[in-house]
Amino acid sequence: MLRQVLPYIFPVVIFALVIWRMSRASRGRPLKPSQLWIRPAILLVFGGLAFLHPAPITPLSTAIFAACAAVGVAIGYVAARHRHLTLDPATGAITSKLSPVGMALFVVVFAARYVVRMATVGGTDADEIVAPSASMLLYTDAALLFALGLVAAQAWETWRRARALLAKTASKKPESLAG
User: Fold this and answer.
1) What is the pLDDT of residue 69?
2) Helix (H) or strand (E) holding 34
3) What is the pLDDT of residues 104-133, one digit of tens each?
4) Cβ(165)–Cβ(94) under 8 Å?
5) Residues with Cβ < 8 Å from 47, sequence gap 6 or more?
6) DSSP states of 117-176 as a string?
7) Secondary structure of the chain: what % helix, strand, coil (to 5)?
8) H or E element: which one contains 56?
9) Which residue of 37, 69, 158, 175 lies most exposed, with the fewest beta carbons within 10 A?
10) Mean pLDDT of 32-48
């Protein structure tokens, strides 16, 4: 019984996590521009570790890697542009809130990832664990570069916008006089 239901439980749990994440992102959350580098750095380490395997790097694989990274950067930039940043002038705290367009983009990227996974694996029923082929390693590495590009572009654009917001507010503050 459990074996028949299990393939359907995972997508429902993932969908519930996506809805939960979107509800958290739709509310304002504090943003610390000085900590935006952490997620891209972690993905960079995992990306570097992923390239330690002996899969051959060919001109085609290099083109696939570059294309996936570029698409990730583009989507990350667009997603960051659809994030509302507000500054509390009294405290200087920045609040980040995901717009409806940003939420839709998140759902589309997540759904596309799931569809690609279903198409490459051939469904949710995996009876045995097999060693990944070189082409599967190529695609997982490309997906990792996509994620790295997406997260890095989001962090950079959010940091740039937050810094501009802080600078604009700082220029409006009256300077205090010492004495």
Assistant:
1) 93
2) none
3) 766 676 666 666 666 666 555 545 545 556
4) yes
5) 141, 144, 145, 148
6) HHHHHTSS---S--PPPHHHHHHHHHHHHHHHHHHHHHHHHHHHHHHHHHHHHHHHSPPP
7) 70, 5, 25
8) none
9) 175
10) 88
Distance of CA 63 to the CA centre of its chain: 21
Alpha-carbon torsion 75, 76, 78, 79, what sign? positive
- Structure letter (DSSP) for residue 94: E
The confidence score (pLDDT) of residue 116 equals: 65
Pairing of strands 83-87, 94-98: antiparallel
As a whole number of angstroms, the distance between CA 152 and CA 109 comes to 16
Backbone angles phi, psi at 132, to 5 degrees: -70, 145
Query: What is the average per-residue pLDDT within 47-51?
Result: 78
pTM of the model: 0.70
- Name 86's bridge partners: 95
Helix axes 38-50, 134-172, angle to 10 degrees: 160
Roughly how many angstroms between the first and final C-alpha of the chain, as a whole number?
A: 79
Q: Taking the alpha carbons of 92, 98, 99, 105 in that order, is the dihedral positive or negative?
A: positive
Q: Which two tokens stand for residue 134?
A: 């070189």
Strands of 94-98's sheet in order across: 29-31, 94-98, 83-87
